[in-house]
Amino acid sequence: MPQLIRGDLAIKTPAEFDYRGLHGTPYCVIYCNRALKKNRLYLLDTKERLYYPIAEWDENDRDASKKWYEYLLSINDKIGEERGRLKEKGYAWSDLDKVEQIVPDEDKMIKDLQNDSWSVLIN
Known about the structure:
By secondary structure, this protein is of the alpha+beta class. Helices cover 25% and strands 31% of the residues.
C-alpha cells in the first residue's frame, strides 16, 4: 500500500533499507509541512512498509529540531554498527541490506495512518 506524506522532505538517513520492495528507502525521515508550520520525524516500519510519525514540533523550535535530528543520526549509526557486525561475521553484502528497524507500537504517534492528516494511504 503506497503512502504519500504531505509536506516537503527535509532530511533523510543515509542508511537505506534495501530488501523486499523497499530498495533505497531511508530508515528515518523528517518532513516539514509549511502550511501547518510543523516538522515531523518518521521512522520506517519495515514489516508494514509504512512510515510512522514518532515526533512533531513547531518549525521554529530549534531545540526540538536539534534533538530529533540527533535521533535521526543515532538511528543511522545503529544501523551502520549492525551492518558492521554482520560483515565481521562473514555475511554477504546482500545480507547487510536486511537490517531492520521496526517501530514499536508504543512509539507510534498515530496507530492508524488512515486517520492521519499528514499521510495518505493509496489502496
